[in-house]
Amino acid sequence: MSYWQKDYQLKNGRFIILEILGEGGFGVTYLAKDEELKRYVVIKTLNEKAQREPRVEKLKKDFKTEAERLSQCYHHNIVKIYDIFDQEGLPCIVMEYILGETLADRLKRGVKQEEALDYIRQIGEALKTVHNRNMVHRDVKPNNIMIQDNTQEAVLIDFGISRELDCTRYTLSYSPGYAPLEQYDEFKPKDSYTDVYSLAATLYTVLTKETPESADDRKKEIKNHNTDPLIPPRQINRTISVQVNQAIMKGMELEPRNRPQTIQEWLHLLPNPQEQKVNNGRQAENNTTDLTLLGRTFFMGVAIWLLALTVSKFIENPELRFVLSFIFCVGLIFLAQYRLPPHEQKSYLFLSSVIPTLLIFLVVMFQIIPGVQLNNLTKLPISYCAFLTLITGLFALILIYIYILFTRNNEKNSYRQ
Fold first, then answer.
1. What is the domain extent for residue 65?
2. Quick one: 265 and 359 in the same domain?
3. Computed over its alpha carbons, how large is the radius of gyration of the chain?
4. Which of 119, 209, 290, 314 fits 154 for a cystine, CB–CB 3.0-4.6 Å?
5. What is the mean pLDDT of residues 5-24?
6. Residue 2 lies inside a defined structural domain of this protein
């Protein structure tokens, strides 16, 4: 059979084909018009590749059986199935037409963590319904999630390779990057934990805009080099919280037994919606990029050196202008720390700026720079002051950069252990 063309009629003229929407490994989907109920629908059937398979009759039977089972999965985050019928010996599924965009298209514009978690929770609830019907989806990925226009509602679509949980042999079909290791073997059991991996991988992609390493490639790399090539998402996007990062990595464990065994268990690893709302503004304030941190460090190094010069001048000549300069420099120091996370970053930023200042004073004290002594520090020309200030900032910059590399390596190692 060739593909149905525009205006082709199905089910005695009730459905009129408008266009092909897409094609997957075994199925093809069409946009059609329901002439009876005056609405747009999606019709899915087996594609030409599936029809040429030696086991086509079994595929037809499985296709129809799964459609019947899915029609009983009532959930607002699962695409609705309206009808099931045969056309020219092919099973057809009539589904809800969702006006919107896929999550794969949505993430191209950037998705913040709170929004991403909202989509993932919705799909998680949908998957729980699927699992309660003793089924596993096996193809959760951004392309199979629709975001409805003018809403934040995510809808799980394309159940083309879903199967019963108690099946002993599965169709060997998978999406690299989203499929867990057990999906690469048709005889290995698949369960709720299979969709846990795919949902965690989907969240990985939404937050990083990168498809994670395939499970098969990860297995080979670990076997050959004893290292997992999967990069923790927080190393790609520093705005991802530690809790979300850990949840993703746990959900993407290669061995099924090491993953949360149900969707609900995995969702519990994520921040709950109430905490997310409370912490949303705080997270926006606390998150800082490496480049911002470097800039702040240089700024604070300069401020502390100017503060040291001001104190030296005040000791020599206690005038009001030096008191005002002191207040100004302290203000600069606090400004450099404004909206930084209230943890070791703030203290390390301060220390990395104080240490170079002390080093510079040691340089001055031991007269390493010709003509620069402690007793004439306040009489230095502007060029010398500018030079020493710049050196202080650069020293601070180097120290904080070492700190960033150190924390990144520690974080990377902790997530891969």
1. 9-96
2. no
3. 30
4. 119
5. 94
6. no
Residue 3 is assigned to a structural domain of this protein: no
Beta-carbon count within 10 A of 79 CB: 21
Neighbours of 89 (CB within 10 A): 11
- pLDDT tens digit string along 289-324? 555 655 666 666 666 666 766 776 777 777 777 677
Number of CB atoms found within 10 A of residue 290's CB: 14
The encoded tokens of residue 240 equal 């991802």
Q: Are residues 247 and 348 in the same domain?
A: no
Helices 382-416, 290-316: axis angle to 10 degrees equals 140
Which pLDDT value is given to residue 168? 41
Give residue 43's Cα distance to chain centre: 32
Question: Are both 140 and 53 inside the same structural domain?
Answer: no
Residue 147, strand partner residues: 101, 154
Is a pLDDT exceeding 60 seen at residue 242?
yes
Residues 349, 343: contact at Cβ < 8 Å?
Answer: no
Q: Is 5 helix (H, G, I), strand (E, B) or coil?
A: coil
CA-closest candidate to residue 145, choices 178, 181, 114, 190: 178
Q: How many domains does the chain have?
A: 3
Asked if residue 326 lies in contact with residue 300, where contact means CB atoms within 8 angstroms, the answer is: no
Domain boundary among 47, 69, 96: 96
| pLDDT one-digit tens code per residue, 105-121 | 999 999 999 999 999 99
pLDDT band for 331, please (50, 70, 90 cuts): confident
- Assign residue 281 the CATH number of its domain: 1.10.510.10
Closest by CA position to 218, among listed 178, 270, 171, 174: 178
Same domain (yes/no): 355, 268: no
Q: Which residue has the higher pLDDT, 116 or 329?
A: 116
What's the whole-model pTM score? Answer: 0.67
Report the Cα 355 to chain-centroid distance in Å. Answer: 37
pLDDT at 165: 41
Q: Based on the fold, state whether residues 120 and 247 are members of the same structural domain.
A: yes
> Does the pLDDT value for residue 288 go beyond 50?
no
Residues 118 and 260 in one domain: yes
CA angle 187, 192, 198 (to 5 degrees): 90
